[in-house]
UniProtKB/TrEMBL annotation:
Gene3D superfamilies: NAD(P)-binding Rossmann-like Domain, ornithine cyclodeaminase, domain 1. GO terms for molecular function: hormone binding. GO terms for cellular component: cytoplasm. This is Ornithine cyclodeaminase. NCBIfam families: PRK07340.1. SUPFAM superfamilies: NAD(P)-binding Rossmann-fold domains. Signal peptide: none annotated. It holds the Pfam family OCD_Mu_crystall.
Length: 319
């Protein structure tokens, strides 16, 4: 039996084309719109454990006109190998016809929607949105958050801390290319004194922040998404809970937010991003640091799919 050579399916976008359809501010705006959309349905994601500590994620979501599923693998063992830790696709369908409309690059969608959720949260919650911004972790999410905060929030100064000096310097070069001033630092805890914006973007294999944050700090932590994973020390989380405010991305964080669960906090009682964006919600403390804990949700991927479809429809046809 012979098979024709494989070809790229029409409507399949590579990483660069996917990113082009998901500009930062527009993606944050689309996520906010999705939170107001009562037709959105997001069932619990399915997670299948794989050998050697990996996982296969199946994450569907729909609204009145679009159905999508993100199918990705998460392979922690790929860290430091040059192979991506997250691989896969986002497949988008038209509900009316059942036709497949797009196949988006899964890692690109994951990186951009995660950082755009942090951007949206910072718009509403950051006491000092001008920065400087401290990024802890110099991988894919580190770069995505730098781009989102520089291009979407107007941050002009970025501090970078990473266990890998080479990775930190690589990210520093990329961030300078965005027009921001950059400083690479060895001690992330010491940098908390100087940076009111903090994005913690590690693989969550060990704690990376322990010190008490500034009273005007906004911390977004995105690396931990299981009860066993954590980036933030329990004492840091407990300090923010006592002196400031903690917001989680969705109610799923009640069984996924390892940072908060390991700190002994009642995650189910915390406000979610929808409360902040759609209101009414007031911070528990009138001042004090804010921690935004993001674990991921297929709704964020649906927002990216909706925006990618609209951006594609707005582009002139190829000649």
């Amino acid at each position: 039996m012979s098979f024709a050579p494989s070809t790229l399916v029409a409507g399949t976008l590579d990483a660069a084309a996917t990113a082009q359809r998901l500009p930062w501010s527009a993606l944050a705006d689309e996520i906010a719109k999705l939170l107001h959309d009562s037709t959105v349905s997001v069932p619990a994601r399915s997670v299948l454990p794989l050998a050697q500590g990996g996982s296969l994620f199946l994450m569907p979501a729909t609204d009145r006109s679009v159905a999508m599923t993100k199918l990705i693998t998460f392979t922690p063992a790929n860290a430091g190998t040059g192979r991506p830790s997250i691989q896969g696709d986002v497949v988008v369908f038209d509900i009316a016809t059942g036709a497949r409309q797009l196949v988006l690059d899964g890692p690109t969608v994951t990186a951009r929607r995660t950082a755009a959720v942090s951007l949206l949260a910072a718009r509403h919650l950051a006491p000092a949105p001008q920065g400087p911004l401290l990024i802890v972790g110099a991988g894919v999410q580190g770069l995505a958050h730098a781009e989102a905060f520089v291009l979407g929030l107007g941050v002009q100064e970025v501090w970078i801390s990473s266990r890998s000096a080479a990775s930190a310097e690589t990210l520093a070069t990329q961030v300078r290319g965005l027009g921001a001033q950059v400083r690479v630092v060895a001690d992330a805890d010491a940098a908390l004194t100087h940076c009111p914006l903090v994005a913690v973007c590690t693989t969550a294999s060990s704690l990376v922040l322990h010190a008490t944050p500034r009273a005007d700090a906004f911390i977004t932590a995105v690396g931990a998404f299981t009860p066993a994973m954590a980036e933030l020390a329990p004492a840091l989380c407990q300090h923010v809970a006592e002196h400031g405010s903690i917001v989680v991305d969705t109610a799923d964080a009640s069984h996924e937010a390892g940072d908060l669960l390991q700190a002994g906090l009642d995650v189910a009682a915390l406000p979610v991003l929808r409360d902040v964006v759609c209101g009414p919600w007031k911070p528990r403390a009138p001042s004090g640091p804010v921690l935004f804990k993001s674990c991921g949700w297929a709704g964020w991927d649906l927002a990216a799919a909706r925006l990618a479809l609209r951006q594609g429809a707005a582009q002139p046809p190829a000649t």
